[in-house]
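Quick entry, no commentary yet.
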Amino acid sequence: MIAAVDLATVWAFIIAFAVFVYVVMDGFDLGLGMLFPLFPAKADRDVIMNTVAPVWDGNETWLVLGGGGLMAAFPLAYAVLMPALYTPMIAMLIGLVFRGVAFEFRWRTTAARNRWDIAFAAGSLLATLAQGIALGAILQGVRVEARHYAGGWWDWLTSFSLLTGVALVIGYCLLGATWLILKTEGALRDKAYRASWVLLFAMLAAIALVSIATPFLNIQYAQRWFAWPGIILAAPVPLAVAAVTALLMRSLAAKQDSRPFLLTLAFFALSYAGLGISMYPYIVPQSITIWQAAAPQNSQIFMLVGVAGLLPLILGYTGWAYWVFRGKVRAGSGYH
């Protein structure tokens, strides 16, 4: 029965799901780090940190699952993409290390707290930029010859990859601002509302620019978006983005604390769906499909058995953590 299933497609969806969950769950705390300069008061920064203290490190479980799953299920794609993305990946890891160390150390010192706050903000910015640039580098395609990466060290650095990097920075900041709306109150929440309006319009501009630029990267992208039958899947995406925009603007105007964050998650889901429409069935765009990159079937089945037990466990404890620490965070309470 398992053998009759298209295992490569199943694994593609598992990895795509893990990456998406990482993006939305680690995205808002990276966004909070980048928003730190907007909240110079120590009390506000302490509250901001306490909104994510119970969950921030667990969010990166999904990054490990996505990266490890790619290496195990699609070893050829991993072997091609990693040499193409060494620089942004190393930069991302450095940023995540700085952010993690700063998160813990800022509570342990008073004199050097501003330095750790700077490290937290800078690490968040570096990690986010690196992730966005890596996404752009993958989308624009990498040179492959004889099943090996054939490009140069700096091929990842283009105007398009920088655009996607900036777009992800804006998107994560919007996630962070709407998370603050959900988790805080008073003047801090009001400031997050004001920031969300600015970031919403910036994100719409970023989505528009990336959407306009993507079809010009490769004729196959244009065919998937504008030619039959791909247009059947692609056409609803901009309509859904318009609908979510209207709902988000309405919820911000009405100051509905819970809805802005959920609607921002919908933005990311729609953008992710557009990415999937553009790339599928390629895992290395225009070069290697998911079937060409897939590990042997026996290996995929063996790993699938493990993931079938692991994935519900991760979802369960993650959901439990968010449930236990639900509600507003107030000054003077939380992590110390």
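second:
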Amino acid sequence: MNRKKILIGMMAAGLTIPTLVAADWTIYGRANVSADFLDDGNDFSELDLVSRSSRLGFKGEREWSDQLVGIFQVEQQIDFDSSEGETFTTRDTFVGFKGSDWGMLRVGRFDTPFKRARGAVNYFGDQVGDIRNILRTDRHGKFDQRFRNSIHYRTPSFAGVTWDVQYSTDRGQQDTRADADDGFSTALNFKQGGFTGAVAYEQQNNEATEDVDAVRLALAYKLTPTLEIGALYQNTEAPEGDEADAYGVAAQYQFAPNWYVRGQGFVLDSDADDSDATLFAVGIERRIDKDLRIRVNLGSMDNDDNSALTPWTQGGGPGEGDATGETATALQLGIRYDF
């Protein structure tokens, strides 16, 4: 990502503030916008302009010694298609410390280790066909979230293996009382040779409803410098006691220096009556340079009689449409610019 680094210096009443002079700040962002044709297989058929997790942020670090580096980040979602928003810290926002020998410790609001574990096979992230459309459902616990009021520790890498542990005193509110809808998330991540993957577990405690938990296994392997394949399995248990398994495979192939083609198929197998679904997606991407890319994706979601999932809602898409018992499809022409 082409990021502009700014060395901050401040003079106030003729006095230099050394900590700010030594701070290394980075301003960064992403514009990820697409024109999507959406059809729920029923009465909804529209062309929609969608801003998919576009963002603006700044982060920095201050090195005190080889083993003590202060870090911070403030990141905000930017919606090019609307003016709605909640606060200036809607995305990963934190402060903490890190050291090469002991790891990283931070507090704030950020993605859980469970959410990050899908990264190995997330070839359609923030696009039509995003696997969160089948992994993150209201009926089956709605995981893949960003917890507020969190403390997170990551170990240093041991032969390519790291361990993440996160605890939130209150996952979604401003209340920081212990045990007020708290949550726990952990993942063991590994990168060995051509293999990348994670094993993750998460529990969400709820005062008003039953607790929910989930396990996830994701693995990707780079067969050749241009071909990568991946697979993911997830088991969740909903507040009503309905269990669900989600699983599938994905692949990405670089067929020219700046051209990529990708595809995936994932199945949701639910214990709830007639609530299964199948997600398919294919796409092609042209990378103009390392910061600018354009893409065309086609996604479909085949729903059982009591399922109403779409291939577009997660990752910034709209919530319109009623795909209950139908096959919902989406065609996307998108552009992404990182700065």
